[in-house]
Amino acid sequence: MSQRTDAALYLKRDKRYFLLNNHPTAVFTPIVSATAHWWQSGVIYQIYPRSFRDANADGIGDLRGIAETLDYCAALGIDALWLSPIFPSPMADFGYDVADYSGIAAIFGTLEDFDDLLTQTTRRGLKILLDYVPNHTSNQHPWFAASRSSRGNSKRDWYLWHDAAPDGGPPNNWLSNFGGSAWEWDEATQQYYYHSFLKEQPDLNWRNPEVVAAMHEVLRFWLRRGVAGFRIDVLWLLIKDDQWRDNPPNPDYKPGMPLFHSQHPLYTTDRPENQDIVARLRAVVDEFDDRVLVGEIYLPLERLVAYYGKDLRGVQLPFNFQLLQTPWDARSIAGLIDRYEAALPVGGWPNWVLGNHDNPRIASRVGAAQARVAGMILLTLRGTPTLYYGDEIGMHNVPIPADQIQDPLEKNVPGKCLGRDPSRTPMQWDASPHAGFGDHDPWLPIAADANENNVAIEDRDPRSMLSLYRRLLELRRQHAALSMGSYQPVVATGALLAYVRYTLAEQLFIVANLGAQPAEFALQSVGRAQSLLLSTYLDGGTHLTESKLFLRPDEAVIIALVPPTPDSP
Ligand code: TEU
Ligand code: CA
User: Fold this and answer.
1) Which residues neighbour ligand 2 (ion) by CB within 5 Å?
2) I need a surface site. Which of 75, 101, 184, 349 has the fewest CB within 10 A?
């Protein structure tokens, strides 16, 4: 019998939990045993190293800078730091163009700095996840230099080379994510090579066993050093059609959209053979104890969950970006949570993301007030949350003057608002020059309101966004119902989103007001309120009786319910 069915039966037999089932499309999530992997109960914190802290005054964040912030990270209450790429790179795509997978870029420091950072994080009970970029290398990688040196080179087949079409043009219609054809002509060897992103990022050939073996060794190199796992870049892109068929047109394409969206990427993404590649990456990581793979996958839910793999032998955490893509209203989000929970394979562990270095800041997308609500949702839904640096202090998108644009995507595809610089600006530590990021003009501008919106100020303010995040992270540690408990949707209407997280020992009721009007919620459908654990207002002003909750605009709360006795009706 599956875990899910078990849980459903259990709930139906047990009056205590049957009470909660007031939801027409109730999804019964499994009751999980007390022993959890760290990557299930823990919280991941993404650091964009260029922008976290600059220790050597060159305007670019670095590893020693990160080391200086570890007390902050530990006190925040997160469990693992995921560092965006720190490897040697010409930085055409800010590190997502790797020239050496087993080194550290000089601007970030040295291998010694890295080992030192690892020692210091471990001492504080924190882990490090690295960013593994398997789909493509830099065109400066020695592998590519060899591959392009001649058609007969032993590494020629490590990349995707193809003859020109009869008219001399690209072999097929495949497009680059970063604009234009994905094929680049190589004059010297008279063939095209394929690049999913910039022409400075040639795609590796994952059908070649030597590439697979070399890239597996990269994983082992860092696992042996002690990293806790990897976030894997563009995991759904690794294999391309071996018959090089044209991608079909996208029927939903509208003029004005980036050209890349004019096609349905049928033959260039999420190919069936990709699943075996993923399972083999997992097997390498499983040679070591309790490490984790997090996959970057932008696919519809049904395809996303395929990356848990057959018998859960894929990645443990296929990134769930749905909160970034769903309209910010209660009914849409309630529906999304139901669909996601229902789509998960038996035993598959959920995860949630509110922001990253490729997307607009949540505070800019939904506004400052709703960003607090969003934070509470992120940290109370079932599954591992990934928190993007700066979101915990409410950083917003920083407008970038045209002459300071850095992002190659914005430069290649201008005017389409694709630029990612606004969400990659330096962390705002305090009100000193450069917001305490470093002693030099930083590589991207600092937010104009950094004097009021920074760690130092929020640290002293008991109602700040930072205080809210710290409290939420603390509650996750104190209450297994939040970190590991089951999830039960609760019927709500209008701007309210409601659910219960529970273990056998406790039931926590979460209600979020996604609207700007006050709202009431009658509690009888879920039980009786015992106490208010937290409000996003952090002011003690929430009005709660045993049977009724009055929410203010943009308020979300966590309420402990009176534990039901086994013989209560
Ligand atoms: O992003 C993959 C990806 O899908 C992005 O191209 C995304 O669509 C785009 O940034 C618009 O939001 C990963 C990395 O996260 C990104 O930073 C890299 O530029 C890209 O891969 C290439 O490695
Ligand atoms: Ca620096």
Assistant:
1) 54, 56, 58, 60, 62
2) 75
